[in-house]
Amino acid sequence: MTTVLLLRHGETTWNREGRMQGWAPTPLTERGREQARRAGAAIAEAYAVDRVVASDLRRTRETTAELLASLDLDPSFDSRWRERSFGDLQGLTVEEVFEGHPEYSLLASGIAAAEATPPGGESLVDARERVIGGWDALVAGAVPDETVLVVTHGGPLFLLLAHVRGQDFETAMDEGWPENTGVAELRVPPGDPDATEVVRDAEPLHEPIERHEDTHPAGRDGGAHDDGDGDAGGDDPEVERREPTGEAGTDRIESRSGR
After folding, report:
1. Mean pLDDT of 69-89
2. Cys-Cys link to 152, which of 56, 81, 146, 162 (CB 3.0-4.6 A)?
3. pLDDT, tens digit, for every residue of 151-191?
4. Residue 102, SS3?
5. Catalytic residue among 9, 153, 179, 238, which?
6. Cα 259 from Cα 251, distance rounded (Å)
């Protein structure tokens, strides 16, 4: 049985600002770095990881570097695990993207939104095919009883879990959106990837971290604090806990894709 752990990167400066990141080189906040360090320690305690594969974008590279303080492994980087590219819309707030461009909103435009391509970006369908290609290659190259950690983004986690569960986009949205440094665990039977089982949804293994001043030179100058539980409240919908299912929850989940 192959075990695959899918980890979303730590908090970034644009997560705090509610901006669509896509392929932009956004850095982790100091809180995001601490999330990654705690995630690495928790993963090292709970699993015997044999291999680390990561998206090659800046925020996943920085997350991986922090994780490796607890995991004595040499990572490899694979662009197939990147977030969906939003092209010219990267850097806009989620409201500006989905309210100003309803053609990319699943709520407003249905399946046509999944096939719509932002200028200079990629459609949700194209991103899904790219991520599934990365998944297929990972599983095909895994050795028996290997545990692989994949450091990726919210979008690929959402898309891959939907693929493994056989869900369409709208159904998958009701499952919720992964938190920063959330870890999903998948178990793949030998020679039968279609029987892959999701045994853990993408939730952090470590204790929540209070928001504190962002000392990263490319970040904001602090001042934004949550109510102490680390992932709920505050001004950042990106790190809120999973929303309720139904139309209201789906709307919030949709707003996070690409971030």
Report:
1. 97
2. 81
3. 999 999 999 999 999 998 878 877 777 899 999 999 999 98
4. helix
5. 9
6. 15
Q: What percent of the chain has pLDDT over 90?
A: 68
Domain map of the chain by residue range? 2-254
Which is the catalytic residue, given 62, 83, 238, 254? Answer: 83
Fold of domain 2-254: Rossmann fold (3.40.50)
Cα–Cα dist 79/153, whole Å: 12
Active site residue 163: no
| Distance in angstroms (rounded) separating the CA atoms of residues 79 and 81 | 5
The contacts of residue 100 (CB under 8 Å, 6+ apart) are: 92
If phi over 0 gives left and psi between -120 and 50 gives alpha, with beta otherwise, what is residue 100? alpha
C-alpha 115/C-alpha 170 separation (Å) is: 14
pLDDT tens digits along 203-259: 888 888 876 554 333 333 333 333 233 332 223 333 332 232 333 333 334 545 566
DSSP 8-state code for residue 89: G
| One-character DSSP codes across 185-232 | EEEE-TT-GGG-EEEEEEE-SSPP--------TTS--S----SSSSSS
Find all residues with CB under 8 Å of 146, minimum gap 6, and list them.
2, 3, 50, 51
